[in-house]
Amino acid sequence: MWGGFFLVIPLITVHFVDGLGWAAASIGLVLGLRQLTQQGLTVFGGAWADRLGPKPLILAGCLIRTLGFGWMGFVSSLPELLAASVLAGIGGGLFDAPKSAAITAVTRPEHRARMFSLVSIAGNLGMVTGPLLGAWMLSLGFQRASLVAASAYLVAFVLMLVTLPHLRPAPSQQTGMGGLKTALNDRVFRNFTLVLCGYFLLSTQLNVAVTLRAVELAGTGATGPLYALSAGLAVVLQYPLLRLAERHFRVRHVLVAAVLLVGLALGLMGLTRTFAQLLACVALYSFGTMLVFPMQQILTARLAPPSMVGSYFGFSAISLGLGGAVGNFVGGALVDAGTRLHFPLLPWLTFLLVGLATAAGLGAVLREIPTREEMEARQQA
């Protein structure tokens, strides 16, 4: 699935702007609308999974995204491309939170970190292979590339249909929209989600400020090695690094340290003078980001009542949606402001401060979250 996603998304800009001469702003609107649709619907997709079970939502999402990506290869106008993009976003919004809920339901608590890590590794593997396959397929035509991307989700639909058990929702008076209300009123979880907005503001900088810095140091060809290093390190090291962290540290401590590492790495990027130095900082940054995702998922599953896991995962998407949106805007704005004020360290110092503040905020919030051992003791009492 991730391979199909990263195959077609980068090609949209290449095909429609460079190939057909469409305005770059219009393609920016297309990509932004897809992300907005997906992140907005993810909140509700999790709540619906609590009522219907995750499997129907995952299957529907895969089919709808198949149609959306397939349609993109045949559009001839901006309204058609916008509609196809919205369709692809709806598909992603339907399966995103239910996927995490399904993983939580079929794994024991002590195995969840490894499962969420494997999901993240699959995403990074798709990030590496998708664009490479897409670049090759573009020579065969965007239409074929979009159909191959769509077929990845069709294959996922068949695999999920055959292998994923139908997980019946736990009986509760508060499933559906009531589950979202419970998540919103859960003070600890709400604060956890809001504080994580700071992390996602930082995590988007690989696509914004870090990319701009790489181009400044080494030209436009620097973006390939930049993304390959980040995704490649995650594919190779995320699982063993997670196992090492699991054996020696608590989840809450790993999450705080990982966010702190991301902020520190971004701060150090402002001091780089060569592309090699920047890549070293990107490696440090990647060590942090590869630990945050599984830790966030574990803590979300730990805080969620059994009948509202989907709602809690859906609500947690707010941190990515809000933090990512602000990060995309703020990253570019800070780089521009630093240039205008002749203070190039401005964005990097800001990111460092955001990292410190986010880590401190998480440290305060996570003190109220019970450990896995405490949760098991409560369930046995």
Automatic annotation (TrEMBL):
<feature type="transmembrane region" description="Helical">
    <location>
        <begin position="277"/>
        <end position="299"/>
    </location>
</feature>
<feature type="transmembrane region" description="Helical">
    <location>
        <begin position="81"/>
        <end position="97"/>
    </location>
</feature>
<dbReference type="InterPro" id="IPR020846">
    <property type="entry name" value="MFS_dom"/>
</dbReference>
<feature type="domain" description="Major facilitator superfamily (MFS) profile">
    <location>
        <begin position="1"/>
        <end position="373"/>
    </location>
</feature>
<feature type="transmembrane region" description="Helical">
    <location>
        <begin position="254"/>
        <end position="271"/>
    </location>
</feature>
<feature type="transmembrane region" description="Helical">
    <location>
        <begin position="145"/>
        <end position="167"/>
    </location>
</feature>
<keyword id="KW-1133">Transmembrane helix</keyword>
<feature type="transmembrane region" description="Helical">
    <location>
        <begin position="188"/>
        <end position="212"/>
    </location>
</feature>
<feature type="transmembrane region" description="Helical">
    <location>
        <begin position="346"/>
        <end position="366"/>
    </location>
</feature>
<keyword id="KW-1003">Cell membrane</keyword>
<feature type="transmembrane region" description="Helical">
    <location>
        <begin position="118"/>
        <end position="139"/>
    </location>
</feature>
<feature type="transmembrane region" description="Helical">
    <location>
        <begin position="311"/>
        <end position="334"/>
    </location>
</feature>
<feature type="transmembrane region" description="Helical">
    <location>
        <begin position="6"/>
        <end position="31"/>
    </location>
</feature>
<dbReference type="InterPro" id="IPR011701">
    <property type="entry name" value="MFS"/>
</dbReference>
<dbReference type="GO" id="GO:0005886">
    <property type="term" value="C:plasma membrane"/>
</dbReference>
<keyword id="KW-0813">Transport</keyword>
<dbReference type="InterPro" id="IPR050171">
    <property type="entry name" value="MFS_Transporters"/>
</dbReference>
<protein>
    <submittedName>
        <fullName>MFS transporter</fullName>
    </submittedName>
</protein>
<keyword id="KW-0472">Membrane</keyword>
<feature type="transmembrane region" description="Helical">
    <location>
        <begin position="224"/>
        <end position="242"/>
    </location>
</feature>
<dbReference type="Pfam" id="PF07690">
    <property type="entry name" value="MFS_1"/>
</dbReference>
<keyword id="KW-0812">Transmembrane</keyword>
<dbReference type="GO" id="GO:0022857">
    <property type="term" value="F:transmembrane transporter activity"/>
</dbReference>
<dbReference type="InterPro" id="IPR036259">
    <property type="entry name" value="MFS_trans_sf"/>
</dbReference>
